[in-house]
Amino acid sequence: MYKKLFVALFFFAVIGELAAQTSTNSPYTRFGYGDINGVSFSASRAMGGIGVGYRNRKAINPINPASYSAVDSMTFMFDAGGSFLYNTFTSGGTSVSKANGGFDYLNLQFPLFKFMGMSFGVTPYSAVGYNFSQTGQSVSQDGLDTVTMKRSYEGSGGINQVYGGVSAKFLNHFAAGINAYYAFGNITHYKESYSTSVTGSSTSQRNNLYVRDLRLRYGLQYFTNISDKHQLTAGAILETKTKMNGDFEFNTKGGGGLDTTQTATYGFDFPLTVGAGAYYTYNNKVSVGLDYSFQDWKNANYYGKTDSLQSASKLALGVEYLPDAFGTRLYKRIRYRAGATYSTPYIKTAEPFSNYSVTAGFGIPFRRNASTLNIGFEYGKTGVKSLIEENYFKMTLSLTFVETWFFKREIR
Known about the structure:
The structure is a single chain. The protein has helices at residues 2-18, 42-45, 330-333, and strands at residues 35-36, 75-91, 94-113, 116-139, 146-170, 174-195, 202-227, 230-239, 242-243, 246-253, 259-264, 269-270, 273-282, 286-295, 312-321, 335-344, 355-365, 372-383, 389-404. Helix content is 6%, strand content 59%. The chain contains three helices and 19 strands. The strands form two sheets. Strands 2-3-4-5-6-7-8-13-14-15-16-17-18-19 form a 14-stranded antiparallel barrel. It starts with a helix and ends in an 8-residue tail after the last strand.
């Protein structure tokens, strides 16, 4: 017990340090709210991000809050994860590579009653992190000369969220749940333009968005044993469009020394989000999951206007293989995972593009209990080849601790 507690504290210290770092390098985070992080958990991260239909008494699945009621009535669980990201950006035949790490999530789950479970957690909603510049030619104001202009762009910050959720089983085969999210944070975008040939000719703009908001996610699952060797779960999730509460600050500085700051409450929305998924298990060994999700960003306000962003969708497929849950050899008790995703982004660019990724990983059990060390790998490609093409490799590490804290021991 003390060894596991020490490992957990050490791991939390590591991801706590990583949490102070920006978890993205992408220049595409200049648009919208940055890189939107899909809610995830240990198994999901190596299985393409599935989770709407996933239901397991030894895993915390915040993707669908209906899953919390699967928790064992005597079990307390916590799950924490961090990641390492390596990006390569290619534009005009030139490639640049960057790397960083970050905290991903911390989730807790425990039973309330035999038919009800509860979960709490913290995870990033979005991340912004970019720093690049462009050089081009423009005509001077008098139209007589050609001026070389350099523009630099820098962005940082993101939106974080904490959640609390509850789920209950009913009619033997159904479960319903709800998550309440409190989103908070700020996003900063900075742009500076200046002439390399005219002294003092420069302008800059700084945008700050401060977010403080509450929203809800609803979940439903149907689960059944088709026979002794066949189990099936189907699920659905829903988030209605909600107003994003917060403030917007806009600062401009001109070459003539003009410095103006404006504060306003622009219209921003979290989009309508819907998802459906199914998860099938054969003989407690082979599992296959399929998810589809849709976010209606097109009809969500962004700076007081709709149609500034585009609707996004994601299709994910994941598989897991467990040779023998009670095997004497470690390799037989490891959960082998793989997956793939295809998605469309919510940001608008001159040339539309899609995101592709493949995933793989392992769930390595502790020797004498249900706790697991999870390792995941993801390789993906996104971006526009004619602008900036992005290839990335992501390695994730997480720990899922499963402890029997509510069992009353009898001494004789």
